[in-house]
Specification:
Blueprint lengths: L6 H16 L13 H10 L5 H12 L8 H12 L4
Helix pairs in contact: 1-3, 3-4
Length: about 90
């Protein structure tokens, strides 16, 4: 078993932000069901619609464990995602 890494926490953070911004997650209808394969499949194939969250998401998925994490960039992406649409 691998040791926990900071990247393990960044992807779920995107799920939380997506939920706060949209009020739901694409797999919300599966919560409480026993269909774990469908839930896992939806989570693996899902990409956020909001461009800043999408960039954050891809950043976390593309990183290797020994790559340094650019927290400043990630923070800016989160702030950008939380700004109201004009």
């Amino acid at each position: 078993m691998n040791a926990p890494h900071v990247l393990d926490d960044l992807e779920p953070l995107i799920y939380v932000v997506e939920y706060l911004l949209r009020g739901c997650l694409p797999w919300g209808h599966l919560v409480g069901s026993q269909d774990y394969s469908a839930l896992s499949e939806l989570q693996e194939s899902w990409v956020p619609e909001e461009p800043s969250l999408r960039e954050f998401f891809r950043y976390t998925r593309d990183r290797q464990e020994d790559d340094p994490v650019d927290y400043k960039r990630l923070r800016e992406l989160l702030f950008r995602a939380s700004e109201p649409d004009e």
